[in-house]
Design a protein that fits this description.
The protein has 461 residues and is mainly α. The chain is built from 18 helices and eight strands. The strands form four sheets. Strands 1-2 form a two-stranded antiparallel sheet. A two-stranded antiparallel sheet has the order 3-6. Strand 7 and strand 8 form a beta hairpin.
């Protein structure tokens, strides 16, 4: 492949409908803005430098899946299904990621290149080298955590086990390596799933028996603000940083045939705990983001969770609902899938527009809500979910901002009118919005999203 610009960049995708034409026009507008990796990197660094005083942003990380070129490449891998010339752009982003890869991000490159190769071929040598490199890093992290738990007793920092930087995300990358036939990835994945399974076993802390994913406030990776807010520790419910991440990985791995002893029992324990934490308001079910130790054990002095209500993916009803759906499917437990659908319906009854949720992007914004809705609506055919997804998709497409570098800005504060920063990536940037709108268009056109779709890196399927 030698072209750098797709011949038909503005050409509608096959199978479009009047319902999706405007959505796809937004997708292609984003794709054009993200097309050149060098421009994306320089514009992102410039945007970070323009951030208001007192705001600290993570540096641009080219090989990082959630914010860098590897995640952006997923957009062009999907677009290449309809116009093969887009594969050249995907390759350019993967090449830019390779130039900046580190031991900590080689798994990100592995996962993105694996999904691209599954659809379009290629990258055999890269994958052959990346799989054992990630396995080595994963085994080191797994061994370190296992040794600490053995010598120091219970207690976790969410960064040790979560989807963003911990064992859950590492496990999804090991699944890619195992899928390539790498036996070391498969063996380490088995050990990792075993540790996540053991998280469902209760531990005794401060004289009480509590779930094994208790966050110990004394650990170095626990933020100082969390130590102050939860002096006896807490229990995180989120997909990005909480127990929904391990539960989603266990359900996904189980469905893919990667199974360990007591796995289904662990999934049931985690799912039942989530069900027990449901709260209700005038619109229906929702979940808190965190539960303090005192509240979990019924002791006086615990912080109330009822005021902390989000609808998003990283924390909130949309992410928890999708996790429960995956768990229910893996366990063949209709009460879990029904609870998930009920919770997603409540998301759409609750205000979720720009005024209520100013962030359009994936992590804790409206794109994450839309993707959870599209996946669940496609799985169930639920008309209420489809109606909500239709409205949200068109609102999200309509929020495209031609004055921004990439089409959408990540708000620096979760309030209407808050200043934003131009971000290109998967979870807090324009690429995630474009991929979510593509998923909506695919599902509305009757195309299956599949087990190798881009959102499997976020454990949505």
């Amino acid at each position: 492949m030698t072209r750098t610009t797709p011949r038909n960049a503005a050409r509608p995708m096959t199978g479009t409908t009047p319902r999706t034409d405007a959505v796809l026009a937004t997708v292609h507008a984003i794709a054009e803005r993200l097309r050149k990796p060098g421009d994306v990197g320089s514009r992102t660094r410039q945007a970070h430098n323009r951030a208001p005083a007192g705001i600290t942003l993570s540096p641009w990380q080219p090989a990082q899946l959630l914010v860098g070129h590897t995640g952006i490449a997923l957009l062009y891998s999907r677009l290449a299904h309809d116009d093969a010339d887009w594969a050249t752009v995907a390759h350019a982003h993967l090449s830019a990621a390779l130039a900046g890869v580190t031991p900590g991000t080689v798994g990100d490159l592995l996962l993105a290149a694996h999904l691209h190769a599954r659809a379009h071929g290629g990258y055999a040598r890269l994958l052959e080298r990346a799989a054992p490199a990630h396995e080595s890093a994963a085994r080191s992290s797994l061994g370190g955590l296992t040794a600490r738990l053995r010598t120091e007793g219970p207690g976790l920092a969410y960064a040790e086990y979560d989807l963003v930087s911990g064992l859950t995300g590492s496990g999804r990358r090991l699944m890619a390596g195992a899928g390539l036939g790498d036996e070391r990835c498969a063996a380490t994945l088995h050990e990792l799933l075993g540790l996540l399974t053991r998280m469902a076993e209760p531990v005794r802390v401060h004289g009480a028996e509590v779930p094994g994913w208790w966050t110990a406030p004394h650990l170095p990776l626990v933020p100082e603000a969390d130590r102050a807010a939860y002096p006896l520790g807490d229990f995180n419910l989120g997909v990005a940083h909480g127990i929904c991440g391990p539960l989603s990985l266990l359900a996904t791995a189980h469905r893919a045939g990667h199974r360990v002893p007591h796995m289904t029992g662990a999934m049931r324990v985690m799912a039942d705990w989530l069900l027990a934490k449901r709260l209700r308001d005038e619109w229906g079910v929702y979940w808190p983001g965190r539960v303090g130790f005192e509240e979990e054990t019924g002791r006086a002095g615990g912080r109330s969770t009822t005021a902390r209500n989000r609808s998003g993916w990283c924390y909130g009803a949309a992410g928890v609902a999708r996790t429960l759906y995956l768990a229910g499917r893996a366990l063949e437990a209709p009460e879990l899938t029904e609870a998930a659908v009920d919770a997603m319906r409540a998301v759409f009854r609750r205000p979720y527009d720009r005024a209520a949720i100013p962030d359009a992007t994936f992590c804790h914004g409206r794109a994450g809500i839309l993707q959870a809705a599209v996946r669940t609506a496609a799985d169930t055919g639920d008309p209420e979910l489809w109606a909500g997804a239709d409205r949200l998709a068109h609102e999200l497409a309509g929020d495209f901002d031609p004055a921004s570098d990439f089409g959408y800005r990540f708000p620096l504060h979760l309030a209407p009118g808050a200043p934003g920063v131009d971000e290109p990536g998967l979870v807090q940037g324009a690429a995630g919005v474009a991929l979510t709108l593509l998923s909506y268009a695919d599902a509305r056109a009757g195309r299956p999203l599949g087990a190798d779709a881009w959102d499997t890196v976020l454990l949505m399927a």
